[in-house]
Amino acid sequence: MAQRGDIGIDLGTSNVVVYMRGNGVVFREPSIVAVEQESNHILAFGNEAYRMVGRAPSNISIIRPLAQGEMIDFDLTSSMLRYYLSTIIGKHFFSRPRAIMSVPSGVKEMEKKALITSLFDAGLRRTQILDRNIAAALGAQLNFMGTYGSMVADLSAGGTDIAVLCNSTVTVFNSLHIGGDHFDDAIIRYLRKKYNLLIGERTSEQVKITLGGAMRRNPKVEMDVTGRNLISGLPKTIAVDSDEIYEALNDYVDDLIEGVQAVIEKTPPQLASDIFEGGVTLTGGAASLYGLAEAISGVLRIPCRVAPDARDCVVLGCAKVMMDPSGMRHLLSAV
What we know:
Shape: flat
């Protein structure tokens, strides 16, 4: 039986999000760490480290320990999680809470086991792993417990997981190296090539949010973008419009649509029929890209929607399992 204080954890490539029973989402900070290079001393986590992006001196590295859907640095990931949990549950929590955690699809089984051990040492009584695709589908309120097929595409910062689910399991799955970070990189490359303007990650993300789209915006939107001129070496501000950023992102959007189509082509005919009726549900932070659902629907001729609370679907799915551990025990991974 779930107890007040039990938590659900979305260990994402972009953010760590924590849901606490009785309190809702209580924590959201970037999955990022600032490290002093020579001593390997950790200087900051989360928001404090993110504020140093593009501003840190040369002797400080700003590291994302999870990237491309994989765990790049286990020790930093473990340290980051332990620090976050100590701020959430406290060092002297009266009753050690239990946790349901979802991790990126590329994390290996041994790394999952080591994380569970690390979280136990950090103060959790027990941690169980929930498949990310199942967590996203639960959070998006998809019906996949019976024989009807559902399809979910979870777009995170580091990649996109596309899955067809039926009978409480993932039937067909594919992972693409296309996510929010790739959109940011595409914008940086585009402005460098077209305008000899070098911008940072934070500026690129703001351009993506303001101007980015999988379809052209009507009317066009413009914003001033400031960076460093690669010829003069001096700061420069230029006006950029949404049509340009659409061009910058177009190849990645096409690849994403092809990835969704490839999964449908691998899906058994009866389940494919369910998908053509029920469509594709988009979850994750990158699902908010302007016009993405419409672009997918327009090319593939199937319904496509962005789930309510798309960026929190994974942690909300973890929370659902946490609320009904006996009824949903079969959904948890054996680690």
